[in-house]
Automatic annotation (TrEMBL):
PANTHER family: CYTOCHROME P450 26 (PTHR24286), CYTOCHROME P450 FAMILY PROTEIN (PTHR24286:SF256). GO terms for biological process: secondary metabolite biosynthetic process; sterol metabolic process. This is Cytochrome P450. Heme binds at C192. It comes from Kingdonia uniflora. It holds the Pfam family p450. Its cofactor is heme. GO terms for molecular function: heme binding; iron ion binding; monooxygenase activity; oxidoreductase activity, acting on paired donors, with incorporation or reduction of molecular oxygen.
Length: 221
């Protein structure tokens, strides 16, 4: 299906039927390599699938987990409601309608719940790294060139009581959270560029769902 859409859009671009490059697919088709040759079909498809999964599936999964947690945990929903209603009432008094970045930054507890969910239930299976040399790690021999994925989010040496759902661990961690041990969006120069955008999406949707609907635990059957 992706290939057929790709070929159709490419032909439309060649025929001059598309003047705007505002959509992602048309923009990718218009890109040229350093030698002025167009990007190959396989590279286009791989990148399009990667962007689609990274921008859609991960946000959707986290939003689903947030709603699941809110519906099942009265203490969590009470704290989120308190935080969101405070923002809602403040904006209503001031006559403002749209959320601002300052509003989103003040949703600290809501985002800590999201962080803890991403720790316990990662949105993706992991980030692989290639061993630059032969090494021993944790009693295992890892040859140079092997691709390695090592989970850290449930490591009790990093997170105290890792099986306990505790959003406060991101507020005042009893142990310092070192770089690259909590990486729901990756890390380093290849960190997900949509990190902040995903945060904006999640917090905005949760704000409206909390302030416009009443939440209660339904029948589990």
């Amino acid at each position: 299906m992706i290939l057929s859409i790709l070929m159709k859009r490419k032909q439309e671009l060649l025929d001059g039927m598309i003047n705007s490059r505002n959509d992602l697919l048309t923009w990718m088709l218009a890109i040229r390599e350093e030698n002025q040759e167009p990007i190959t079909r396989d590279v286009l498809i791989d990148n399009f699938i990667g962007i689609a999964i990274a921008s859609h599936d991960t946000t959707l999964i986290l939003l689903s987990l947030m709603m699941w947690k809110i519906a099942r945990d009265p203490k969590i929903v009470a704290k989120i409601c308190e935080e969101q209603m405070e923002i809602f009432l403040r904006k209503r008094r001031s006559g403002e309608e749209k959320l601002t970045w300052t509003d989103l930054q003040s949703m600290k507890y809501t985002w800590r719940v999201a962080q803890e969910l991403m720790r316990i239930i990662p949105l993706v299976f992991g980030n692989f790294r290639e061993a630059a040399k032969d090494l021993y790690f944790g009693g295992y021999f890892i040859p140079k060139g092997w691709k390695v994925s090592h989970g850290t989010q449930m490591n009790e040496n990093i997170f105290e009581n890792p099986k306990v759902f505790d959003p406060s661990r991101f507020e005042n961690p009893s142990k310092p959270i070192f770089p690259y041990v909590y990486v729901p969006f990756g890390g380093g120069p290849h960190m997900c560029s949509g990190n902040d955008f995903a945060r904006v999406e999640i917090l905005t949707i949760i704000h409206h769902m909390i302030t416009k609907f009443e939440w209660s635990q339904g029948d589990s059957r």
